[in-house]
Amino acid sequence: MDFERIKEKLSILADAAKYDVSCSSSGSNRKNNNKGLGNSSGMGICHSYTEDGRCVSLLKILLTNHCIFDCAYCVTRKSNDIKRAAFQIQEVVDLTINFYRRNYIEGLFLSSGIFKNADYTMERLVAVAKKLREEENFNGYIHLKSIPGASDELMREAGLYADRLSVNIEIPTEKGLKLLAPDKDRKDFIKPMEKVKNEIIQYKSERKLLKKVPIYAPAGQSTQMIVGASGETDAEIMYTSAYFYKSFNLKRVYYSGYIPISHDHRLPSIGTAVPLLRENRLYQTDWLLRFYGFDIRELLNSDFPNLESDIDPKLSWALRNLDQFPIDINKADTRMLLRVPGLGTKSVHKIIQARRYRNLNWENLKSIGASLNRAKYFITCDSRIFETKDRTAAQLKGLILNNATSKFSSTLSAQLNLFESQTINSA
Ligand code: SF4
Fold it and tell me: The whole model's pTM is what?
């Protein structure tokens, strides 16, 4: 093996893969029953992030950065003048096994530029996973990128070896996709997603009847959208997300702020990357859809197309719907409890459990872990209401933001005092 050449390929192809944030291992539980190599647990393999927030927990590489497409936002696009490389199938297998044995990684995230055509590329991705599983008995985590337009047969095979599959939607609107990735067609994402969804359902139901039926893509499928490359609103992004979650049972949608790595005239002229805060607000909205029972139309709509930057989307919704508050913490249903700013899913669960035995008071709520700094403005407890009376949404927002700032300042000054006293003591 030419180690210098492999090292060079690794540096090119790992660097090209870092812009893909759609790697996560949650939900997979592949047991090592056959004395093979590795184990991917239900807790998921470890995640770590580079300073710029990109996930690098797995051996995360492209099979090649050659690509026949020319997506404006992508560093790998064919018109970009960069050094190109391609791994052979066996090289990826060997790297994965070697890194795994040295405890550098717990799995593989393998994506690729499009070589020749979708099927040719997908075939090679599948071959890597197949070799790892069948020849190396590798039971670690494998996340394969599905190549848009790949055949049903290859997608079926991919799910038999990979824990997770993902196709990146990349651009949230069809208009944006036409402009920035003219070679791509939304139908080409939808076809493999549909296939994976159906296979997961079918394999699951067959396994109920016959234990021998293999598990198909146990960690499901995910996708990624680039935020800020095509001028879309937060509403456009989150409506696309909601549609894909619902239609294809996606496990996760990842939001990746556009990084201006490319100088293509089709891209917006933004000098810096999309702020992480926008990504963060989109993730918060995503959680509200998946775990808090919100409908996307409540959070974003034509009157309210973008998320607020100074407050989170749940507080923003509550302030726009003050007529629904305050709610009685001892009587309200789960749906409304989940809508109270400051109450997370765990707190709500504990409240429901605890109030079976007694009426809860403010102290009880504190010990449950509710964040009363926020929640107190939206609830009654012990028949008492906290300072909400006749306050407007703007006043409440001001109060909450002031509380947050003074809490931050007092934590900061406590930390400074501690630092000072430690410095004095150690002087
Ligand atoms: S198809 Fe994928 S790898 Fe190729 S240019 Fe488009 S985004 Fe980049």
Answer: 0.83
